[in-house]
Amino acid sequence: MRKTAILVTACLVAACTAKSPMDTYIDNVMSRLTLEQKIGQLNLHSTPGFISAERVMEEDENAQLLNKGLLGGLYGSPNPTLLRQYQEIALNSGAGIPLIFGMDVIHGHQTVFPIPLGLSTSWNMELIERTARMAAKEASASGINWVYSPMVDICRDARWGRIAEGSGEDPYLGGRIAQAMVYGYQGHDNSTYATDEVMACVKHYALYGGAEAGRDYNSVFLSRQEALNGYMNPYKAAAKAGAGSYMSSFNEFEGIPATMNSWLMDELLRKSWGFDGFIVSDATAIAEEIAHGIGDLQEVSARSLQAGLDMDMNSDGFVGTLLQSVKEGRVKEADIDRACRRILEAKYKLGLFEDPYRYFSEERFKADVYTPENLAFAREVARECQVLLKNNGILPLRKGAKVAVVGPLAQDAAAMAGTWSQSSHNGESITLWQGISEVTPASYAEGSWLLRDAATEDGVRYGLIRMFAPGAPIPPVHSRPQNLLVAEAVAKALTADVVVACVGEIAGMNGEGASRTDITVPDTQVEMLKALKATGKPLVVVLVTGRPLALTNVEPLADAILNVWSPGSEGGHAVADVLFGDANPSAKLTTSFPRSVGQLPLYYNHKNTGRPHPDYEPYRKFTSCYTDELNGPLYPFGYGLSYTTFSYSEPVLSADEMPLAGTVTASVTVTNTGSRDGYEVVQLYIHDIYSTSTRPVKELKGFQKVFIPAGGSAKVDFVLSADDLSYYNHDLQWVCEPGDFEIMTGPNSRETQAAVLRVL
User: Fold this and answer.
1) Tens of pLDDT, residues 673-725
2) 282 an active-site residue?
């Protein structure tokens, strides 16, 4: 018996120490690589002509590195022919290691969906996952196997241009969306990838959206406690969903640039959250650490590697300095081996060692990319991502109405596609003019209802005021003065039943490197709206934007405001669907819309002060408020109207008390009190009344999007546990503290009703 027990124990030890097929394969690969070639696997370049920061790669530069085995991957090009050529060079080089190919696939690949901020306003996780699934199918058929998405940065300041790429201001909702996106790209099994799946790259790690003053690439000043409670959940959720890679951010945190911040990359992401993939820098982020004042390129490269960074994007810091740092004893070969193994493991999981060309498929490209079915889905998605901010009863429009379509963005395909859209079909995006003209063709002669100027020097027509938006990359100015353009708009309006004015942000006014101190609609566009309002015709404002705008100068002029973001390839069709009532709007804001830029940063889940002031009450001296503005936003987080109306009961708890190990169900009945069927996003918030650290006035902890027929009701249940009521305390412990909690339900963060739950 004793011998048998010993034998079994020995077998168990052997089983536990046996290497996986992947580990064995990677061992063999690494055994034949020189140290310099291992460093080469940590080197990532952009494809020729792709602008990455201020650096543009030349074709022969990449080829020379490949021939030496000093390049691990390329990014930036959707051209499968070019990528295949580079793969052939890599396989025939001294290293013979296949390349990984990355690309910024942000909101679709060739078929473009609404920008991520717009997509988040659907509050539909299944829909969001399906958009990532389709993007993965299209990208993977083009040779791309690694996408720089999802962007999960929480942003509370609408001045930041990259708010367009994220999911808004709430960490709970952001976490749910991050999880859905990762599953859409990678599938639910991250150990291997099918040929129509791609590896996600979660960005920007971490806290990039907290940039001071909303200025891109700026410093971030947050405590660890506030970072963990207010910002980190989406990064964590993506790790728990099995994301294959992360991208470090440009900002510093606690005085250390994120790209060399060991607390972020090693202690938190790897050790605490269990992430086992690789981390790549953002473009030239290692070299930018020099400007942070940390050291020269050799110093910052060594520190970044030691902190946990695995791949250098476009700085050539690793490939240019690590060999010398090893010779000088500044870094260990084991650090390089660790990073190299992570890169090779990613390539193994992607199946590149088995078939380096598995992501190049002419058959799948024809069958899966930019198909009529894909475009139909893009239209479906865009329908669900339009937020009705105001409606005095003018919407939906009557299809027989004579509609004057005016404004600078009415015929702007680029504005429909939005920021970070790299589709070769962007010029084919359906404009608002096209969408409306297909619904009411009898109301139009070609161009007669469009406010537009003569062709500019480059042969492209631009509408009213486009060229006057301050701070944007602007085409040549119009040959006619502003007053004549407004007069033309007024003339068209006077002969119409209703005016639809398409205004907002042109391409380049949001996105990376597009921070704004003035987030109002440009003055020249507002002057047009004032003139249109004076005609007495009903005025519908279609707002195209990549950020929350301060609309206090627009809201009084409009009978209805439909915020459509940048809605994608089928934007014009989808917007027309909503305007004319073929779709009932159901989207809800995921960011607060300020009254004034002076309120920023602005977010619903703020904390009280020792002298709190209600968000929607006027000025009162010696409280925390403004003399010239309310504290609260114009449109709050979670807000959005429908063509029907809903009423809410008070929330009912299954029990008034809950032990720490127990659960409680909060229920609310929602009734459709209008005459149309509709979807409603039912939201649940909590407030910890007394706690050892200060807590927000409310926090989103649940939501459900439910269909309710006209006259019908739906009972919506939310199951709460101690985890839903927990937070990181001052000692950074995840705790649920016994005491009283307000459990609030409602249609948005402003209009809630509460019940009190006691946690024992």
Assistant:
1) 999 999 999 999 999 999 999 999 999 999 999 999 999 999 999 999 999 99
2) yes
Q: What does the buried/exposed string (b/e) look like for 445-469 if buried means 16 or more CB atoms within 10 Å of the residue's CB?
A: eeeebbbbbeebeeeeebbbbbbbb
CA 412/CA 339 separation, integer angstroms: 45
Q: 146 in a domain, yes or no?
A: no
The reply to whether 233 falls in a domain is no
| Rounded (10°) CA dihedral 206, 208, 212, 215 | 160
The sign of the torsion formed by the CA atoms of 605, 606, 610, 611 equals: negative
pLDDT band of residue 49 (cuts 50, 70, 90) is confident
β-strands 100-103, 252-253 pairing: unpaired
What pLDDT, on a 0 to 100 scale, did the predictor assign at position 463? 33
Write out pLDDT tens, residues 192-217: 899 999 999 999 999 999 999 999 99
Query: Can you tell me the mean pLDDT for 605-632?
Result: 96
Give the 3-state secondary structure of residue 3. helix
| DSSP string across 228-290 | HHHTSHHHHHHHHTT-SEEEE-SSEETTEEGGG-HIIIIIIIIIIT---SEEEPPTTHHHHHH
The answer to whether 341 and 30 have CB atoms below 8 angstroms apart is: yes
CA atoms within 13 A on the CB side of 90: 24
What strand order describes the sheet that includes 539-544? 387-391, 560-563, 539-544, 498-504, 403-406
Q: How far apart are alpha carbons 178 and 182 in whole angstroms? A: 6
For residues 418 and 336, membership in a common domain is answered with: no
Alpha carbons 86 and 73: distance in angstroms, whole number: 10
3-state helix, strand, coil in the chain (%, to 5): 35, 20, 45
Counting the structural domains of the chain, the total is 3
**Based on the domain organization, do 334 and 356 belong to the same domain?**
yes
333-349 and 317-327 helices cross at what angle (nearest 10)? 140
Same domain, 385 and 519: yes
Of 350, 370, 390, which residue constitutes the final position of a domain? Answer: 370
Domain of 717, in residue numbers: 644-759
Q: Note whether 431 and 425 are within 8 A (CB).
A: no
Burial classification of residue 660, based on how many CB atoms lie within 10 Å of its CB (0-12 exposed, 13-18 middle, 19 or more buried):
middle
Q: In whole angstroms, what is the distance from residue 170 CA to residue 168 CA?
A: 6
Coil vs helix vs strand at 731: coil
Q: Are 60 and 71 in contact (CB under 8 A)?
A: no
Q: Which CATH number belongs to the domain containing residue 477 in this structure?
A: 3.40.50.1700
Distance CA 228, CA 223 (A): 9
Q: Indicate if 387 and 505 belong to the same structural domain.
A: yes
Query: Is 640:391 a contact under the CB 8 Å cutoff?
Result: no
> In terms of domains, do 539 and 394 share one?
yes
Q: Which of 153, 170, 282, 368 is catalytic?
A: 282
**Nearest-5° angle of CA 668, CA 673, CA 679?**
65
Do 467 and 543 fall into the same domain?
yes
What is the rounded CA–CA span in Å between residue 510 and residue 545? 8
Total residue count of the chain as it appears in this document: 760
- pTM greater than the 0.90 cutoff: yes
With respect to residue 121, please indicate whether it lies within any of the assigned structural domains.
no
In the chain, the amino acid numbered 578 is V
What Cα–Cα distance (Å) separates residue 101 from each residue in 107, 602, 727? 18, 38, 39
Q: Which of 321, 336, 370 is the last residue of a domain?
A: 370
If asked whether residues 361 and 457 sit together in one domain, one would say no
Q: φ, ψ for residue 62 (rounded to 5)?
A: -65, -40
